Amino acid sequence: MQELARQIPDTVQLGVLDQGHVLFIHSVGYSGAPHAFADVGLRRPLNATASGKIFLAGMTTQDVEAIMSRCTEKYTGSTITSLARMKQELGEVKKARYARNVEELLPGYWVLAAGIVGQDERAAAVISITLPLSDFSPERETEVAALIKEAARKASLQLGPSGISRALSQR
After folding, report:
1. Radius of gyration (Cα) for the chain, nearest Å?
2. Do residues 45 and 19 make contact, with C-beta atoms less than 8 angstroms apart?
3. Which of 11, 16, 87, 22 is nearest to 49 (CA)?
4. Residues 5-47: pLDDT tens digits?
5. Structural domain harbouring 100
6. How many structural domains are present in the chain?
């Protein structure tokens, strides 16, 4: 996470799934980052966060439907509350192997996230990076996505044999 925060540079978070929400348990901020941002200790909704979309992408259709039936609060005009729209988004997440959030929870920010694969071949945790919207472009997304996927792959290697085999197949 520290390496990623230096490469971007900005704030990197680590989140885990907790009672149908993302619980952010660690944050690393690059000291030279113009926008310090940390959600450590806060629980955020799965549907309004890039990290949450990573967890949703690993769930059954029934679980996603149940969670989305409770996700009715719109934090911004971009928050996904529709099951059909979320299913479309999760298809994109599975294909790209990362998730994005552009002003879906907080105005003025975009976030990219990638899963740290655990022993059960599902995301055990998620690494995300929060950036100011002024830094958003398709080219920048491509660059940051490659870095965050590599950071997640490296973290997956540390989780043991399943994480290693999955991480190697995601190169």
Report:
1. 15
2. no
3. 22
4. 777 777 889 999 998 999 999 888 755 555 555 577 889 999 9
5. 2-169
6. 1
